[in-house]
Design a protein that fits this description.
This protein is an alpha+beta fold. It is built from eight helices and seven strands. The chain has two domains: 1-173, no CATH class; 178-322, Heat Shock Protein 90. Mean pLDDT is 79; it is low at 279-284.
Length: 329
Amino acid sequence: MRLFKANRLLIATVLYWFLLLYIMAGLVWWFIALEQQNRQVALYRTERLRPGDPDYLTKLERIREESSLKTAQYSGEGTTFLCLFLAGAFLVYLPVRRQLKMQELQQNFMMAVTHELKTPIAVAKLNLETLLKYPLDETKRRQVIESALEETNRLNTLASNILVSAQLEEPGHRVARERLDFSALVKNICGELRTRLPQRAWEIGIDPGLILAGDPLLLRMLVNNILENAIKYSPPSSPISIHLQKEGNHIVLRIADQGIRIPGPEKKRIFDKFYRLGNEGTRVAQGTGLGLWLCKKIAADHHARITVSDNSPAGTIFAIIFQKGNPRV
């Protein structure tokens, strides 16, 4: 049963194409049978003609013409039916496959969410129990509290991503627009990360006074999600660079890491809802597949786009480009 659930998309695809080929083979067999019958009728009618009949050649030519017309009729009907059948099969196959794929992604999402919920709760609970049961020196006590706070922040981020994704998909949802100092917002996020991860090397360059109009909470989530993604998929000893600057009429935020590179075909798919790199059974990185989808949605709502490119010598560069159409104040 588990094997069937895990491979139901493959099984459904195989069965679909088997039935499609079976029906096409039946259609070809139908044409062959009718054509054979047509030839036999023409042969039977030809044998009944008398060679001495003065209209023999005329009647023979008429039989051949009628046989040719029948062949053309069968070919036309068969071709028309085949084209309509293939078009219908194609139109049915795409949404069914899309639905099965979405169900598979949603199932993986629920598994990931369950794991993401249980892990920080378990770690925070263990840390609190440790504080209650054992007398710890100040250094150890601070480490335990910081670990509990980090897991609580993870839980809060997960809950925020789920809630915001639901809100952004509601019909008629509007993004709040207010004047904000985007440079100060990014600088504040960088300061929080430096405090939380002092062992990580940071390369930060932020041009001051870059103003945008938008929702500060959503923009903070946008920057945080991409930064968390860079932290998650790069070695702890490797640096992460954050550069915010004005380029012509655009404001551009670039976040670069030196972790794993995203394969070329995956660069667009990573922004699909619930999609995650790698195999679900062997993946070790945490996540739900909502973060980058939210980033793309938030960016689009703020007249921005996100590009993904390879870093040198390794890693990935995410660039958030706020277009000229963003109503900067």
